[in-house]
Amino acid sequence: xxxxxxxxxxxxxxxxxxxxxxxxxxxxxxxxxxxxxxxxxxxxxxxxxxxxxxxxxxxxxxxxxxxxxxxxxxxxxxxxxxxxxxxxxxxxxxxxxxxxxxxxxxxxxxxxxxxxxxxxxxxxxxxxxxxxxxxxxxxxxxxxxxxxxxxxxxxxxxxxxxxxxxxxxxxxxxxxxxxxxxxxxxxxxxxxxxxxxxxxxxxxxxxxxxxxxxxxxxxxxxxxxxxxxxxxxxxxxxxxxxxxxxxxxxxxxxxxxxxxxxxxxxxxxxxxxxxxxxxxxx
Length: 282
Ligand code: ATR
Prior knowledge:
alpha/beta, Rossmann fold, 2 domains, 6-stranded mixed beta sheet, 38% helix, 20% strand, globular, binds 2'-monophosphoadenosine-5'-diphosphate
């Protein structure tokens, strides 16, 4: 049986084994999918052991996406543009890296939530690995202008430089948020709400939203609560957490490995049952 795994630290809380097991049942593909904890320093050795034990592919989460990028012999276009890998495939004795996060987000927003991203004015909060993963896909989906705002401004500048679209993508200081006008899409990619990060509420003015704004948090569960509560208080029309993106990026990885795209709706519905209170869009 082919072996797959999610690698991260921490990783015990990951929903990926459950999601891939559900996809496997649905498509009749026999596979094993486990969660393997690793630090960035140990990751090369952990992957060696995994391959020696029959490992064929892996998903990668925090804080290993950049390490995975560096370990790959070949890279797909989406991983190259993101500078981060979330999907590894063992191919001809070497690792091939891809990034399905952005495609997963766009598919969730446009397919599941029916949002039209074209010509939207977008605010991207954060400039870490998650932001790098989704920014190219949002641009490809046709958003008009993108403003990147990050606590550490140099990282916002670096992301904007890397995207290489000076007329469409701009970096601004957090303190300038009140002067940036209204956004039709606000995407929180920061880890500010994660428990291991002290669960900080971001300081965000209501002036960046309108009653038509879609507010999206790439986090789900408790980590998404502060931002989604802010979006609700601001009166945003669509309020979306990262659970749908999680299922969609997994489906994209499943397709890369097994050649079939599973039906994500029943798997999303099952997960949503356990995170019911958090999403109000649909
Ligand atoms: P990920 O892979 O999830 O993106 P990351 O690469 O560590 O994780 O990036 C975390 C992001 O959350 C960064 O943009 C970080 O801002 P800095 O670059 O200034 O560190 C942002 N972040 C984390 N805690 C934050 C907080 N309390 N307030 C604002 N931004 C925060």
